[in-house]
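Forum: Protein Structure Q&A
Topic: Joint prediction for protein chains with partners

I've read a bunch of threads here and the consensus seems to be that you should model interacting components together rather than docking separate models afterwards. I'd like to see that in practice. Below is the full input, 766 residues plus whatever partners are listed. Could one of the regulars post the assembled result?
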Amino acid sequence: MCSQGVSEVPTAMEIYKLLPKTNCGECKFPTCLAFAMQLANQKVALEACPHVSSEAKAALEESGAPPIRLVTFGAGELAAKMGDETQLFRHDKTFYNPTVLGLIADDSDGLDGVKSKLDEAQAMSFERVGQILRVDSVAIRHSSGSPEDFVAAVKAAAEKGLPVTIMCDDPAIASKAVEACADKKPLLYRATASNFDDMVALAKDKSLPLVVSAPGLDELAELADKAKKAGLNDLVLEPGVQTSADMLVNMTAIRRAAVKNKFRPLGFPTIAVLGPTEAEHMKAALGVMKYSSAVLMDTMPREMVYPLLALRQNIFTDPQVPIQVKAGLYSVGEPTDKSPVMFTTNFSLTYFTVRADIEKSKVPAWLLVVDTEGQSVMTAFAAGKLTPESVAKAIEDFQVKEKSSRNEIILPGMVSRMSGKLGELTDMKITVGPRESSGLPKLMKTFSG
Amino acid sequence: MGFELPKEKFGGRIKEVAIGATKDQGGTRSARLMAGGSNGLPFLKFESEMPHLPLVAMDVVDTVRMVPEQLQESMGAAVKDPLEWAKKCEAEWGADLCVLKLQSANPEEEDRPAEELEGLVDKMLKSMALPMVVYGCGFEEKDAKVMEKVSNIAKGERLFLGLAEEKAYKSIAAASMANGHGIVAFSNLDINLAKQMNILLLDFGTKPENIMMDPLMAPLGMGLEYSYSNIERLRLGALSGDPVLQMPMICDCSCAWNVPEALEDNPEHGSAELRGVYWEAMTALSAAVAGADVVIMRHPRSIVMFRETINVLAGGE
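Posted by a regular:
Agreed with the consensus. Here's the joint model:
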């Protein structure tokens, strides 16, 4: 199965050699070779063959595994997921598991210092476009020299409920910290060339995911392969990320090796540990875009975290499913029953643009969002998802006439064709708005008197 | 183990375009800038050439109506006067080039006459020496008049004029061709439209080395993901050898300042001023990582953050 001493996804011929070669057809394929080809393409499961030997089974297990292993740490609802990615570019399908962000607390800051940082991490949770965006984990780093302080800090972290990374290169001290929270499935950071055997033993003993770290990819692949052969499957790779260039090149190389070349030793999620400067914060943004499964940071000022979380939300949106806003009647500013009413679709980009343009005018308004399954105005109109009937229904469902006594609605200029029918259906005065929402401030000012 | 970096080789290359003309070249600019020229994905120098870093253009808007109040405070009084603003871009804020946006031409707002705007461009060319891009207000009839005058008054300066749109490109293309300027071809988040725009301009007689593409940069939090993927796809299309997609891309990241979340007072999200700076810097970084050759930005502090990052990105092996 192996070439160059490393395990890779087997070819159809390699699989075929392990099959019974009886062409019995019970797998629903005419020959064992045909079945092997389907297996190599991961189109069928090995279980479809009732006669396969257990040795062959073990050997073939790898072929069904995803190119990048899914690794989780933490427990319960907040457990953090990393990896399981299959693409180099999000437009080819999607990126699945958003970069896990973690705030690092250092035990040399004392227990109170650690606790206040833990509180800071926990408080960073925001609602944005109907999703909760949060800093998803915390990490405790040992640099105090006092194992007791470290264990106390890790204990405090584990009590918070967020997934914890234990950062300590000394296996003996790390092992004490693990004892304090083994049931919470912390991420163990990290095995290097110098502490490798003991760290691997500790991770194996406690069934914990383990970060494997080396500056060069060659050495990193070697260590990961060694850890795997020692029986560990839940690995996270830490390549050198000294500069943003190192980070981009190494993260790209790992993703390509795993996804395109099915190079198993690098088929794991990745992690980057970053410092406290603005330059390092920009590297966090780079990591979100370019293949870091987790980013741990020394500092997380809110003015940086909020845009970073928004970036993560953007990049990890499924390109086939546009972000939708909930249909309904939204207030912009503090509208009254005299304020103008307009409608748009529930495609988030459309909604945000229209909303921002209304806000620019500083005239309060009611914005009716019609459910078009996330399509923009013209697309929805062409597809029959934005019709006079659907708008009239939304006007009814969201009680527009009760909120505004103007009995008037502004429609997007692009769909001026529906104004006649919409007027008939609703008995409202229809005002045709601008074709582009950038023209809204001008129109809105006519309502400001 | 002998692990080798998995390399991607492409057959195509982004065209190089020149922005600005120095004295020797018939203009008065301090430099002739080159954009584009790469034959690989951004910043991956172990497998491809990237002869020029993404250029940083700073925008200058000629009416304070279009500049959010928070920015006016943060950037100072210069933003109330386009000439002063442009001078700061050159002398203090380290812009590579300047994008003058003639928003006051808007016939539904200030409706400043073409002659006045011609005068403004003339004065700006005389008061600072950065290479320039000049955008109209987006109203075709008015822009036709304005751009003709701008083209004439800036003869020899090798400006880029914009924006050429699918339904409004002939007059602006004619204006740019008349005096050896370049043109910016706009498309609305659509790879096919981007291609179509270039074909229209080429058919009209514009030379490929005179075109940059603006594929519409949507800001962070307001559709950035669409732009990010669109830019990546355009770049990959160009690299795979489609000559009609090989024009460099110019991405307007100052759109970050249109995002209410970037500007609003909300202590939950930290100080508004610094948040806005990160907002713009991250928007620009995503454009550059996806494949932008020129980014347009506004806040001097975001530019510092952005530049620091791309300098290091490009410096690595």
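Chain B has one domain: 25-35+48-315.
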